Amino acid sequence: MSSFSRLTISSPWIGKEQNVAIVNKTLEDHASFLIGKSEFRELVVFVKATHFDFSAFLRTERGKAARLDGFASALLLIGQKLCVDELEGFQDAEFLLSHLRTVGFQEWVVVLTTLLRQVEVLVETFQGDNRFKALARLQSNSAGFTNFC
C-alpha cells in the first residue's frame, strides 16, 4: 500500500474545527489570488463550484482588497476580463454584481452596472447623491447624453 493511499484529510491530531479553519483559509487564499490576478470569470466558477461564501469573504479585511482604484481603468479591465458581450460573461458579471452589491462595494456596482447597462441599479445606487442629480440634470438638458439614461 502506497503512502499516498493512506493520506486522509482528517488527521487524528487535528480537530474538526481546525480542519474547517484550514479549508476556509485555503478557499480564502484562492479567492484572494483570483481577485489579485483579476481572473473574475475563474472566480465565479470557483465560488459556484465550492459554494464558497463570497459575500462573507468580501466583508473581511482580505476581501476588502477587492476595492477598485479608478472607474475608467476598472471599467476597461473588468470589461476585458468578463467579456459581457458573451452570454457567460454577462451572467458572470450579474453573479458578481449580486454579491458585491450585497456587501456595499459601490465602486464595483457602478462599474458592473455600467457594463451590464443596468441604469435602474445605477439610479438606485446614487439616489440622494447631489452629484448624480446634477449629472442627471445635465443629461436631460443635453442631446448628446440621451442614450445614456
What does this structure look like?
InterPro entries: Ric1. One of its GO terms (biological process) is retrograde transport, endosome to Golgi. By secondary structure, the protein is an all-alpha fold. It has a domain at 16-117. 64% of the residues lie in helices and 0% in strands. The chain is built from eight helices and no strands. The protein has helices spanning 16-36, 40-50, 54-58, 71-82, 87-102, 106-116, 119-125, 130-141. The longest helix is centred in the N-terminal third of the chain and has 21 residues, at 16-36. The chain is elongated. The model is unreliable at 1-5 and 145-149 (pLDDT under 50).
Quick recap:
One of its GO terms (cellular component) is Golgi membrane. The chain has about 150 residues and is mostly helical.
Envelope shape:
elongated
| Number of E-state strands | 0
Oligomer: single chain
Gyration radius, in Å:
20 Å
Structural class by sheet pairing and helices = mainly alpha
Order of helices and strands: HHHHHHHH
- Residue windows where pLDDT falls under 50 for at least 5 positions: 1-5, 145-149
Number of helices: 8
Distance between the termini: 68 Å
Mean pLDDT: 85
- Fraction in helix: 55-70%
Described by strand count, sense and barrel closure, the largest sheet is:
none
**What fraction strand?**
under 5%
Which helices and strands, and how do they pair?
Layout lengths: L15 H21 L3 H11 L3 H5 L12 H12 L4 H16 L3 H11 L2 H7 L4 H12 L8
Helix pairs in contact: 4-6, 5-6, 6-7
